[in-house]
Specification:
By secondary structure, this protein is α/β, with parallel strands linked by helices. It is 46% helix and 14% strand. The protein has a single domain, classed as Rossmann fold, CATH 3.40.50. It has 11 helices and 7 strands. The radius of gyration is 17 Å and the shape is globular. It holds the Pfam family Abhydrolase_1.
């Protein structure tokens, strides 16, 4: 799969994986900040999103992970810090399950590790049906106030407008395929205690989709993982409170890159 991506800056590589139903532009504040700090930042559009090819049907997290591995192989990037938000965080966990030896550190933002419930599977498939039937506009308008905090909509309308643009631009077929894949995702709770790479867990204090309790479950499951709660942010703290998010990321990366890299196998 030939993913569309940005590869900016130089230095130690950091790969950032967007959530649903967004694209790589959601990481713009982090790309600008990290490249200015002397790092290389790779931000792909996942298959079915942004400018990457759309494949209808069902896209499992393992497929997204394989796409990322293929991209990084083509770029000659063997070891990297890997971060993701929401669905992107679940893809990051799947990547760690499949190729942990390549990952120097993990950023898990506003995500959750459990398998989907029966009710959740039905909801995701119904939502996928709706997107194919109606397109993205109605869904995007309905969930905007959950994607970002109401305070963000009032005080940072440009951020809300960016989030709405990304959602409206998402191809319905790609978004629906991802929803169906996530409905069948595995339970990552047993994986958490096996994670030895340094891990940062971040969540917005006002996140309705993945509230603080979900972040605490992940943080408590991974040995020595810190939890940073971004006050006043909803589901997208990297866009809503970029200064606070970037500061937490800076502290984490300074620790990761001070350690020796993983031993290849």
């Amino acid at each position: 799969m030939e993913l569309s991506f940005d590869d900016q800056g130089a230095g130690e590589p950091v790969v950032l994986v967007h959530g649903h139903p967004f694209d790589r532009s959601m990481w713009r504040p982090q790309v600008e900040h990290l490249t200015a700090a002397g790092l290389r930042v790779i931000t792909p559009d996942l298959r079915g999103y942004g400018r990457s090819p759309v494949v209808p049907g069902v896209t499992g997290l393992d497929v997204f992970a394989a796409d990322l591995a293929e991209l990084l192989d083509r770029l000659g990037v063997d070891r990297f810090v890997l971060g993701g938000l929401s669905m992107g965080g679940q893809i990051v966990l799947e990547c760690y399950r499949l190729f942990p030896h390549r990952i120097r550190g993990l950023l898990l933002a506003d995500t959750f590790a459990e398998a989907e419930t029966a009710e959740g599977r039905a909801d995701r498939n119904a939502q996928a049906d709706r997107l194919l039937r109606e397109g993205m506009a109605g869904y995007a308008t309905e969930v905007l106030s959950k994607m970002v905090a109401p305070r963000t909509i009032r005080e940072q309308p440009e951020v809300a407008a960016h989030v709405l643009r990304m959602m409206n631009a998402a191809p319905p077929e790609g978004a629906a395929a991802a929803l169906r894949g996530r409905a069948e995702r595995p339970d990552y709770l047993p994986l958490l205690p096996t994670i030895t790479a340094p891990t940062l867990v971040v969540v917005g204090s006002a996140d309705e989709f993945t509230p603080i309790r979900d972040a605490r479950t992940i943080q408590q499951g991974i040995p020595d993982a810190p939890l940073v709660i971004i006050d006043g942010a909803g589901h997208l703290p990297n866009l809503e409170r970029p200064a606070e998010f970037n500061a937490a990321l800076d502290r984490f990366l300074s620790v990761v890159f001070a350690r020796p890299g993983p031993v290849p196998r």
